[in-house]
Amino acid sequence: KVNALFKNNKFVFAFSLVMSLVIWCAVVITVSPQTTKVIRNVKVVIDESVSSKFGLVSFGDNEFYVDVTVTGKKYQVSGLTKDDIVVKALTNNVKKAGDHNLQLLAEPVDGSTRYTINSTSQNTINVFFDEMVTGRSYTIEPEIITNGSPIVGEGFSYGAIDLSEYTVNISGPASEINRIHKV
Fold first, then answer.
1. Are the C-beta atoms of 128 and 173 separated by less than 8 Å?
2. Is 5 in a helix, a strand, or coil?
3. pTM for the model
4. If 0-12 CB within 10 Å is exposed, 13-18 middle and 19+ buried, where does residue 85 land?
5. How far is CA 177 from CA 48, 99, 137, 170, in A?
6. pLDDT tens string 146-163
7. Residue 157: CB partners within 8 Å, gap ≥ 6?
8. Which terminus of the chain has fewer Cβ atoms in its 10 Å neighbourhood, N or C?
9. Buried b (16+ CB within 10 A) or exposed e, 96-108
């Protein structure tokens, strides 16, 4: 019966096509060469677990993106996207307020070992940390100034200045809030 199948040209054609596809897949999977791919615009996640123990929060630009270079078999890295890799900014040396260079660590999201992460386009990012001050209230002191001088000349006076609000609540980094002398 098998001999009869191989005498049928249509069966031989279909069998040859299927076998060539199976052999091609086996070669691609087992002999596939290593290839390198750059994954662009991977978002950096700032790990604030250590800094928060010291009451510090990151301020300023917290949106950082890097390009990540990976190496692996072509069929394993060809479909990788920025969602498959996490880049963390490590805060283990952040113990006081100020600017800090944070080391970047790139890892596969799923812990995969099918490919190797070679490098990131940046090794560090600069982030400002400080204590968060919330709701500090200041009284507004009205003063009309133009070009650095009072608007009313000497010998003249103006009436009461009527403000819509007489106080303002300010929140932000402690080092900046502490520099406010008057509003």
1. yes
2. helix
3. 0.67
4. buried
5. 22, 17, 11, 8
6. 666 666 667 777 677 777
7. none
8. N
9. ebeebebebebeb
